[in-house]
Design brief:
Blueprint: E1 7-8, E2 12-13, E3 19-20, H1 32-39, H2 47-54, H3 58-71, E4 74-75, H4 84-88, E5 115-116, H5 124-127, E6 132-133, H6 137-144, H7 151-163, H8 169-172, H9 181-194
Antiparallel strand pairs: 1-2, 3-4, 5-6
Length: 199
């Protein structure tokens, strides 16, 4: 079991594929986690897969998705704007699963620290690129290399690399600790395709 419900508050069916709202401009309360989840909302990836992909655990991911929805940052298929009822309501607070922390274990510094974006892709995501807090010299070099990778992909790789030292195997595979063998295998192969050097 992945711990991901079939229905996501403020969205509906977990198979829906949200996309970024081109009218939305992030403000000061839009942190690194929000940017990272928002960068995955491209209209081709389902809510279920976004939750698995970002690696924050189901509860935290749903909480972030709810915040994005209430800020007007994401649209659902067929929407031209976020319904007013969503924008004026309070975001849903996902309940943490028993035995799981409400916040993801983080090896990243707070989001109010200095950050770097890839200059060549700063216009990505409607003028906003994802950020990597306090990058090392090696990470800065990786962000500026001439490669066919967008900013979101580069930051995803570097965030994942940071997690290699401290995260558990379940956290690295982006699954719950009670996952069955099939879920473990699927996650492994999904991640191996995402991070394979041939990409």
């Amino acid at each position: 079991m992945s711990g991901i419900p079939n229905q996501i508050p403020d969205y509906g069916d977990v198979r829906l594929k949200p996309r970024q709202n081109p009218e939305f401009a992030p403000g000061a309360d839009f942190g690194t986690e929000e940017y990272f989840v928002w960068s995955r909302c491209d209209g081709t990836v389902s809510l279920h897969d976004i939750i698995l992909m970002v690696g924050f655990g189901a509860s935290r991911s749903i909480e972030i998705l709810s915040k994005l929805r209430h800020l007007g940052a994401v649209l659902l298929p067929g929407e031209d704007s976020v319904p007013a009822a969503i924008l004026t309501a309070e975001p849903s607070q996902a309940k943490p699963r028993k035995g799981r922390p409400s916040q993801p274990p983080s090896d990243l510094p707070p989001s109010n620290t200095s950050a770097v974006v890839t200059p060549a892709t700063a216009a990505k995501a409607h003028g906003h690129a994802p950020v990597l807090d306090q990058p090392s010299e090696e990470e800065r070099a990786a962000l500026t290399l001439e490669l066919p990778l967008d900013a979101a992909t580069r930051v995803r790789i570097l965030h994942f690399r940071r997690r290699l030292q401290a995260a558990s195997l379940f956290e690295l595979l982006e699954i719950e600790t009670d996952a069955d063998k099939r879920t473990i295998k699927r996650s492994y192969f999904r991640l191996s395709k995402e991070f394979h050097p041939d990409r």
